C-alpha cells in the first residue's frame, strides 16, 4: 500500500492540454444515451435478466443500485451482483469461449453480443466524479477494458479506480488503481492501494491517462501512481457497482445499496 498524505497538495497535477474532449456525460436523463452506453455487465457470459443494471438518472447524475431482488450475475460464481454501464460489447457465438474479460477458464457465451464500439479509444484520458458506497460488501469501480476483438493479447485493463466500502473512512480512504494484464502477455500486474486523506463517500474525481508507453492515475487532479506500461488497442469504458454478499440472506431493509456517478468525461489525444 502506498500513501499520499504528507505531500498530497504538492503532487503533480493533471494536465488536459494535450487532449480533446469527446465524451461528456452528466447522466441527467430522462433516458440513457444508447448511442454511448450498454446498460448490462458483460452480458455475453450470462442472461439478460442477470446482466441488466439497476439505476436512475437525474440532476445529481447516475445512481447505480443493487436491489434486494436483483439476481446474481452468474450463479455458479456465487452471489456477485452488479449494476454496470459500458461503452462497447463483443463476443463469439453461443457456446464459444470468446468474449471480454474471461475471468476464469470454462466460461461459455450464453447471450451472443454484437460488436459495439460506442466509445473505444486506443489512448486518452478518462475522469469520473464519484461518491462511493460505505457498505462493506460493495465496490464502485471505473475500468477501461480491452474490447478483445484481437484475441487474448488485447484484453488488458486500465483500472481507473476501485473503491471498496470497507476501505473508506471520514478522514482517510483507500483507492485501488493500476494496470491488469488479464491475458495480455505484454502486460504485468501493476495494481496498488493508495491511502488518501479524503472521504470517498463524498464527491471526488478519479482519472487515468494512458498511451502505449505509460499509464498515470490521478485523484482530484493529483498524481497518485504511474505505471511504465500501457496499451494501444481499443478499450471500452465500464462504470459499475458490485455487491459481494457474505451469505444468501437478503434483508430488504438494507437495500437498495447505492453509489453515485456525477459525471464522466472521456478525452482522446488532440491532433498535432
TrEMBL record:
<dbReference type="InterPro" id="IPR013320">
    <property type="entry name" value="ConA-like_dom_sf"/>
</dbReference>
<dbReference type="GO" id="GO:0004553">
    <property type="term" value="F:hydrolase activity, hydrolyzing O-glycosyl compounds"/>
</dbReference>
<dbReference type="InterPro" id="IPR000757">
    <property type="entry name" value="Beta-glucanase-like"/>
</dbReference>
<dbReference type="GO" id="GO:0005975">
    <property type="term" value="P:carbohydrate metabolic process"/>
</dbReference>
<keyword id="KW-0378">Hydrolase</keyword>
<dbReference type="Pfam" id="PF00722">
    <property type="entry name" value="Glyco_hydro_16"/>
</dbReference>
<protein>
    <submittedName>
        <fullName>Glycosyl hydrolase family protein</fullName>
    </submittedName>
</protein>
<feature type="domain" description="GH16">
    <location>
        <begin position="43"/>
        <end position="272"/>
    </location>
</feature>
